[in-house]
Specification:
Main location: cytoplasm
Mean pLDDT: 88
Pfam family, one: IMS_C
Radius of gyration: 21 Å
Structural class: alpha+beta
Shape: globular
Catalytic activity: DNA(n) + a 2'-deoxyribonucleoside 5'-triphosphate = DNA(n+1) + diphosphate
Subunit structure: Monomer.
Helix content: 25-40%
CATH topology of the largest domain: Alpha-Beta Plaits
Distance between the termini: 28 Å
Largest sheet: 5 strands, mixed
Cofactor: Mg(2+)
Strand order of the largest sheet: 5-6-1-7-8
Low-confidence stretches: 345-365
CATH class of the largest domain: Alpha Beta
């Protein structure tokens, strides 16, 4: 039986800003550039009271909380703190799988530092983070990654939640299906049409029908409803690709969803800030109303150096789609692939420097 932690820094970027500037403490802080196309990178808990959330448009955040203090993100500082936290993790186990600057999975089945329990290890890690960074973190403790990630959100901020093996079914049964990673609004609606609203409902639904309707994802849904997740914690896995995609509420023509491509390009670019590696190939993914999947890609001489470059290339890839103009599409995605270490290849050393002015940050909790 594995003992897995999911440790998640609390409102990471906003908390770093409040720590470093005492005048921001206790005030609603929004980490974002101002502007019509900017998105919120992080919101302090004081701002969240007003409904401000990560990844929402900055202009909407300003409407929701007119008194919010907007702070431009400082990625160099956030990465430095992230490295401090990573060093703390590695004192306890070598099995650390970073998901972003502010969260990671840890396998503490056999911790380096003797501990009476995984819960005690989680508490020790959180105490060291607080002592050495003056920041707080929340943790989930569970037999697998899926459960640990859900659990870490349970007692936020600055809390721990434990799901013991004997508690898995009772814990999962009442949860809304949206708690399962990969179940967004569109999938939630499709499951609701089958009478599935909770994980308990999902567990009782025939796996054959789930597979018939949703393919391999249906099978994965069935396993998650049982609390089954056999994925091991994978340390130091280099990023190969980053992408974001969305399913439309109704099928659209190829040139009717430019705004969606722009939004997904921004989300993908935002996610590149979670890694030190550099992506070179831009990919546009489409799914037709008949569920045909097609991709178009372009590898420029140098990796995209800005959100604008990424977006321009992604939009241009529509011109390489050779289906009839009347074809309608149900899904679009924008991605970057061909990741390499920073500095590999001509011109790559400076493209993702931390002082680039126009890159939004990944959502954090």
């Amino acid at each position: 039986m594995r003992k897995i932690l999911h440790v998640d820094m609390d409102a990471f970027y906003a908390s770093v800003e409040q720590r470093d500037d005492p005048s921001l403490r206790g005030r609603p802080v929004v980490v974002a550039w101002r502007g019509a196309r900017s998105v919120v990178c992080a919101a302090s808990y004081e701002a969240r009271v007003f409904g401000v959330r990560s990844a929402m448009p900055a202009v909407r955040a300003e409407r929701l909380c007119p008194d919010a203090v907007f702070v431009a993100p400082d990625f160099a500082r956030y990465k430095a703190v992230s490295r401090q936290v990573r060093e703390i993790f590695l004192r306890h186990t070598d099995l650390v799988e970073p998901l972003s600057l502010d969260e990671a999975y840890l396998d503490v089945t056999a911790p380096k530092i003797p501990s009476p329990s995984a819960t005690a290890t989680a508490q020790a890690i959180r105490a060291q983070i607080r002592a050495e960074t003056s920041l707080t973190a929340s943790a989930g403790v569970a037999p697998n990654k899926f459960l640990a990630k859900i659990a870490s959100d349970w007692n936020k901020p600055d809390g721990v939640f434990v799901v013991r093996p004997s508690q898995v079914e009772a814990f999962l049964t009442p949860l809304p299906v949206a708690k399962i990673p990969g179940v967004g609004k569109v999938m939630e609606k499709k499951l609701a049409e089958l009478g599935i609203a909770t994980v308990g409902d999902l567990r009782m639904h025939p796996v054959e029908e789930l597979q018939s309707r949703f393919g391999s994802f249906g099978r994965r849904l069935h396993l998650r409803a049982q609390g089954i997740d056999e994925r091991a914690v994978q340390p130091d896995q280099p990023v190969q690709s980053i992408s974001a995609e969305d399913t439309f509420e109704r099928d659209l023509l190829l040139y009717d969803f430019e705004a969606d491509i722009r939004r997904l390009a921004e989300k993908t670019w935002l996610a590149t800030r979670r890694t030190e590696r550099v992506g070179r190939t831009v990919v546009l993914k489409l799914k037709t109303a008949q569920f045909r999947i097609l991709t178009r890609s372009h590898t420029p001489e140098f990796p995209p150096a800005s959100l604008e470059e990424l977006t321009t290339i992604a939009l241009s890839l529509r011109d390489r789609v050779d289906l009839p103009p009347s074809t309608r599409y149900r899904l679009v995605g924008v991605g970057l692939s061909g990741f390499r270490e920073r500095g590999e290849g001509d011109g790559q050393g400076s493209l993702f420097d931390d002082d680039l002015p126009s890159v939004p940050a990944p959502p954090d909790r």
